[in-house]
Amino acid sequence: MKVEVFDSKLEMGKAAADSATTIIRQALKEREVAYVIAATGASQFEFLDALVLNDLDWARTVFFHLDEYVGLPVTHPASFRRYLKERIMDRVQLRAFHFINGEAEDVWEECGRLGQLILQQPIDVAFVGIGENGHLAFNDPPADFETDQPYIVVDLDEACRKQQVGEGWFRNIDEVPSQAISMSIRQILKARNVLCIVPDKRKAEAVRNCMDLEVSPSRPASILQTHDNATLFLDRDSSSLLS
Question: Which domains does the chain possess?
Fold first, then answer.
């Protein structure tokens, strides 16, 4: 796994966006459509702001949604569908964006619908982050490293839910949903390239644990150590505890 460290979140976001642009352009040279997995959260702000300004044939890109809360309306400020519509879809014209419907009447049926879609083609690049508890997508520890299902329903642990409050998405932990639909670990690893964007001091311990210690379900993002084309983008704060 490659690690790149930058002096600021802005520099980190711009570098990650340029890397993503290069990967997508190469994919579009090989075939008609490029396939991308998009993450959300405060860690992706600078990256997505820079990415949508880059010169890409967006109409030939198809995006997949990484994770979404179960039961949270799309109108809620913390809705990841809302986040992605505002930060990507409202700013560039994509061929398609396959959203997770966290309000589906049968969430496992929704997992199956999305799974059928994502298994139809290779994924060129996945954009991800690392949670304060080391989670990858909403795969909280101990993460399921074995399931082959592309999307699964997961329980959110207390640390994960507290992070959402700390980032300002919810007023208190009781407002945070207890479950989410998440792309599975194995499905994320199927992406040809993984760009992991992780700024801020509050992520430093998780970054150290996931990068310096052995791969373990108790540190879900540590699995990225096994990916041949994964790059970790850090700022000075998030990298401060790395050996």
Answer: 2-194 (3.40.50.1360)
